Structure formats: C-alpha cells, structure tokens
Amino acid sequence: VPQTIPEIQQPAASIYNINNVQIVERANGVMIRIQTAKSFREASVKAWLNRKEWLYITIPGGQIDVVNFKEPPFPNDGTLRKMVVNQLDDVVQLSFRIAGDVESVDVLYGDYPAEVIVNLRKPYTIDSRHLLNKEREKWRIDKIVLDAGHGGKDSGTISPGGLQEKDVALDVVQRLGKLIQERTDVKVVYTRNSDVFIPLWERTKIANEAGGKLFVSVHVNASKNRSASGFETFLLRPGKSQEAIEVAELENSAVRLEEDQTRYGDLSSQQLILATMAQSAFMRNSETLAAQIQEEFDKELQGVNRGVKQAGFIVLIGASMPNVLVELGFLSNSRDESRLKRASYRQKAAEAIFQALIKYKTRHETLISAG
Length: 371
Prior knowledge:
Layout: E1 18-26, E2 29-36, E3 46-50, E4 54-60, E5 80-88, E6 91-98, E7 104-111, E8 114-121, H1 133-138, E9 143-148, H2 165-183, E10 187-190, H3 200-210, E11 214-221, E12 231-236, H4 242-252, H5 269-278, H6 280-300, E13 305-311, E14 323-330, H7 334-341, H8 343-370
Parallel strand pairs: 9-10, 9-11, 11-14, 12-13
Antiparallel strand pairs: 1-2, 2-8, 3-4, 4-6, 5-6, 7-8, 12-14
C-alpha cells in the first residue's frame, strides 16, 4: 500500500504590522519608536496631547495583537508612565499616560527598519520653584555635536585651485574638537571624523541619539559672483533673500548623491515652516549662538562679516537642540581661497567658534544657576 506523505503546513503570515514599541528618554524630550512590518509613510498617522495628561497616537491601516502585545519598559521618573493599546476597526491607537511637561509633538518616519517615530519635546524653560541640582545638571552643555560638511564622494564646492570644501570643513572641525577636548570637560561627538560620506538625515540622527546639547555644522561657501566673500552663520528658517536660498540649495545638493532620496520629499516653503516650528523651542538659543559666532569671527578672521542669516538647510532639520550652520568663506573668491588654504587661518576659525561656544555655555549655565 503506497504511503501518503503528509502535507507540510506552512505557517500563516502574521496579520499584525505593529511589532514593537520602544521608549527613549532624552534630556530634551522623549522618542517613541514604533517598529512596524510595513511603511506607514502614506498613512495619516496622527499624534496629539489631551489636556497634557495623555498622548494619543493613531495609525490607520495598523493591526496589533492587543492581547499579547507587551508594554515597553518605562524609565524611572520618565515623562511617560504607562501605555494602553486599542484596535479600533482598521486603526491602531496607542495611548500614553504623561507624567511631565510636554511642549510639542511631531511624527517622523524611518524605512530601514520600517518605523514610526514620535518625538515629544520638553519645554526649554527653567522653573526656579522646582529646579533642583539634578535638573540643572540635565541642562548643562556637556556634549557638543560637530558636523563637518560633505565628505567622501561629496566634495562640496571646489576652488579654482582645487581646494575642496569637505577637506576644509573636516580640518576646522577636528581643530575645534581638539580645543574643546583639551580646554573643557565637554564631550565632543563628530558626525564624521574622516573623509566619508554621511547622508544629511543621518547627521541630526547622530546628534539626537547622542543627546547633544548643541549642533554646529561647518561649511565653505561658493558663488557665481567671484567678488562675493566673507563669513556668515545660518539658522533654519525659510530664506529671506535669493542669495540665502542659493546657499541652501548648494549645501542641500548633497542629497543627489544619496541612495534613498525619497525620505526628503519636496522641501516646500510650507514643509520648511513646519520644520522651523518643530524647532521653535531652540530658536532663540540658536540665534544667540549664531550672533556670538559672528562676533568672534569678526575678531579673528579677515574679510567681510556677512552676519546671521536664515535658510532651509536639510542638515539642520530635526535637530532637537540649538543648531547653526557656519560658512567660513567663499572658495570661489581668490582672497578667501588663499586664506582658507593656510592652516594658521583655519586654526583661527576653529578658535573663533570655540570662544563663541564657551561664551554661550557660560551665559547659558549662569542663567540656569540663577533660576
């Protein structure tokens, strides 16, 4: 009698697409990472606060195992205390009990791995009635993120004499980092410390995950107008002048060298305004730092002080801390090129930024102590 071979049963594909939730507490806010089995970029994911007591996140098209889903561990004395999971037809709702002050909420998306990221931003204020030494310590500037523009296959702008922006930026950043490490107890985090290509989105990701308190991106400018020269510092805001917009377009052009360009979408004026609003808690501090850098540049560097300006730099979007982008000069200008070729001049540029950082840190921490 021929034997019947039993049919092998293949495991059924899971119907659930919400896999896990992680809570990451930072000094300047909370990150909720919702790991998913598919991208929800096109879905209308919403996150909002209810009377500052509950945070609600709704994910249309989401499916979650309500019975077996494990609540993530919550940090002791953290901003979030508990989570409630609900499946409402084809919508997943995650509800979080809030135990601390939250100023704003924004939703981001990741592709590799697929995830929905919800950032809660704490108020950048000091309440002298409740601020204890432990809280003061959290707001100390103990970690600065230094970002050398471009790198690797992205040379940035190149002077007529062959001087590359990526090399100037890295050299100044390394000099600046050395000054900080030798003269202070502040930790330095580099987005790159060698000639490698780092996507723009990953730079602020590095800064945020490191818990940086300041973010300084160093670049060198260029212009079709060969007479344009001097140094300037930029903030993340919609550009007010065509000249500022062109500088942002030049620095943002690095996106074309990235393998996945879809994550940026179309950086329209409306999107840029939304990105600016997300950083509103840090804007005044960014303005103070930018003005201080320009003041120190004016003392140390030769050339035209072009002042503090604003434009839509992708590398600044998403930084959960005060942030600025400096342009040390124009490689398209022969005088600026000649200066930036000199190691002694690049050292002066690093010294100027260092002095600005120290003065900003002193002022900031004095205000905290007085609270």
